[in-house]
Amino acid sequence: MTNTVNHPKHYAFGGIETIDYLKAKMTSDEFKGFLKGNVMKYMSRESEKNGVEYLKKALWYLNYLVEVEE
């Protein structure tokens, strides 16, 4: 079963997850901004899109941001 929140299949194309590639290529501040932007993106679209799934995606990025900050 595909996990559309934690590990979407299309985000791991080519053997590396996109988030890992971005983290490796961005400065720490750029990466934190990317994570914050994704939280905002999913929060602002949840009522127009997949509701709970989009809230889970926002939470995933928020949890990742907390992990980076700790």
Can you offer a commentary on this structure?
- InterPro entries: SaV-like.
- This is DUF3310 domain-containing protein.
- This protein has one domain.
- Helix 2 runs antiparallel to helix 3.
- The model has no long low-confidence stretch (mean pLDDT 87).
- The chain has 70 residues and is mainly α.
- The protein is globular and about 30 Å long.
- The chain has 3 helices and no strands.
Arithmetic mean of pLDDT: 87
Number of helical stretches of at least 4 residues: 3
**Major sheet, described briefly?**
none
Which residues form runs of ≥5 with pLDDT under 50?
Answer: none
What are the SSEs and their pairings?
Blueprint: H1 18-25, H2 28-45, H3 52-69
Helix pairs in contact: 2-3
Quick structural overview:
This protein is mainly alpha-helical and about 70 residues long. It is built from three helices and no strands. It has one domain (about 10-70).
Features:
globular; DUF3310 domain-containing protein; SaV-like
